[in-house]
Design brief:
The complex is a heterodimer.
Chain A (H helix, E strand, L loop, with lengths): L2 E12 L2 E12 L3 E5 L6 H8 L7 E6 L3 E4 L11 H11 L5 H11 L12 H14 L4 E4 L8 H17 L3 E5 L12 E6 L2 E7 H6 L1 E7 L8 E8 L2 E7 L9 E3 L3 H9 L16
Helix pairs in contact in A: 3-4, 4-5
Chain B lengths: L13 H15 L11 H8 L3 H13 L3 E4 L3 E4 L8 H20 L4 H20 L1
Antiparallel strand pairs in B: 1-2
Helix pairs in contact in B: 1-3, 2-3
Classes of the chains: A alpha/beta, B mainly alpha.
């Protein structure tokens, strides 16, 4: 499993505040990784560090090959036509596949002569992603690519990104605070909370390795590892890791992605982090 | 060719939904030996799901001997699902349709029918296992 991106002991500080602390994670090549967490968790900072837009105070972060980044406020010029954005991109990048960009835009039905300001939000997102892909990156980093898009546009943007992943060896790291957008598309999960890494791992393995339990509040939790619990009246519901508890009064089922993420975010001291193989080792 | 549909609220893992739909198409004869399954790219372009999910479903079908991947060409159906022949299928379907009409006439609604069918199916499975 070759990592496409790897951070070791990463720490980032703005003035005297640490916005990322002791962050060690690795994303295998060819994966679509979801980066989730509440506002201010450090998602954008981690992405900026990955693509070299900021220098970490501690540790390091490495990308195997080239990375391309699409910021949340889509980096397009309103008065440029789509064709002019392509020329701009070609001049700003050493690697540039103009044919691929033009045919991608044609496939999406986006006219080259249209000004950026005349495009819908979804089309602007598609143009920004197309420009990022035209530099032939190994890692595509997307900061909230679906923010402010209607459901149909979200679906269209995701479809076209997934098609790129199917078409060639491309790793994607994308942030979102809407977990349901990522459920079908991401196979790697990274959860950040308050500048610390809480979860990093294969989505299916994580879901298989956890259970949602409901039962009476006097049921014993012996034999299991509680991530977080919430109480309503005499009933307790909780997210646990590993084997189910011995007490037979618990009802157990596999969590959904959103339940897993929420379970960890509610309890910032819990973490599930794999042993790092190491890119340089 | 088969077109996959996703039931996002079903709680069934996405790759399993794809596996089930191929098997269902094999049972109904809408997919036959030699037919090609859509490429991972075609599936993700219509469903907006992770391509690895499609590959996982195809690997599972391959493991069960139902399809085979031909390098550079795609994934093809190797064999249908053994079971009733098409003629028997039609005959059994007629019988089931008659039963549904009878149950409806007796005042059972869609949900009652499904519950009854599930219970009988489960009982039969138990008897078979005993």
């Amino acid at each position: 499993m070759r990592p496409a991106m790897e951070a070791t002991g990463l720490g980032v500080r703005y003035r005297r505040t640490w916005v990322l602390r002791d962050c060690s994670l690795s994303v295998p090549a060819g994966r679509v990784a979801a980066l989730v967490g509440p506002n201010g968790a450090g998602k954008t900072t981690l992405m900026h560090a990955a693509v070299g837009l900021l220098r970490p105070a501690l540790g390091r972060i490495r990308v195997a090959g080239e990375a391309a980044f699409v910021a949340q406020d889509k980096p397009l010029y309103d008065n440029f036509t789509v064709a002019e954005m392509l020329i701009f991109g070609r001049r700003m990048n050493t690697h540039w596949d103009d044919d691929a960009a033009v045919s991608r835009l044609a496939g999406l039905g986006i006219p080259l002569e249209r000004k950026v300001r005349g495009l819908s939000g979804g089309q602007q997102a598609q143009v920004a992603v197309t420009l990022a892909l035209a530099s032939r990156p190994d890692l595509l980093v997307l900061d909230e690519p679906l923010a402010n898009l209607d459901p149909l546009a979200r679906h269209d943007v995701m479809r076209s990104i997934m098609a790129e992943v199917a078409g060639r060896e491309l790793t994607v790291l994308m942030s979102s605070h809407v977990v349901s957008d990522l459920e079908e598309t991401c196979d790697w999960l990274v959860v950040l909370n308050g500048g610390r890494l809480q979860v990093s791992g294969d989505t299916e393995e994580l879901l298989d390795g956890h259970l949602v339990l409901t039962g009476p509040d006097d049921a014993s939790t012996a034999g299991t590892q509680v991530v977080s619990a919430s109480r309503t009246g005499r009933q307790v519901s909780m997210l646990v890791r590993g084997a189910p508890p011995l007490d037979p009064r618990w009802q157990a089922r596999r969590p959904g992605l959103e339940e897993l993420v929420m379970g960890y975010l509610r309890s910032p001291e819990s973490a599930v982090l794999p042993h790092l193989a190491g890119m340089s080792a | 060719m088969i077109e996959f549909i996703l039931d996002r609220g079903s709680g069934v893992a996405t790759y399993l939904q794809l596996v089930h739909q191929v098997k269902q198409a094999l049972r109904l004869g809408t997919l036959r030996p030699g037919d090609q399954l859509p490429t991972a790219r075609e599936v993700v372009e219509s469903l907006a799901i992770n391509p690895n999910t499609v590959l996982k479903a195809y690997r599972e079908l391959e493991r069960e001997g139902l399809v085979e991947g031909r390098p550079g060409m795609g994934t093809f159906v190797r064999q249908g699902i053994a079971g009733a022949t098409l003629a028997e299928h039609t005959r059994l379907r007629r019988g089931l349709e008659a039963w549904v009409r009878e149950a409806r006439a007796a005042g059972l609604d869609q949900e009652d029918l499904r519950a009854l069918f599930t219970v009988v199916l489960a009982d039969a499975a138990k008897e078979g296992a005993a």
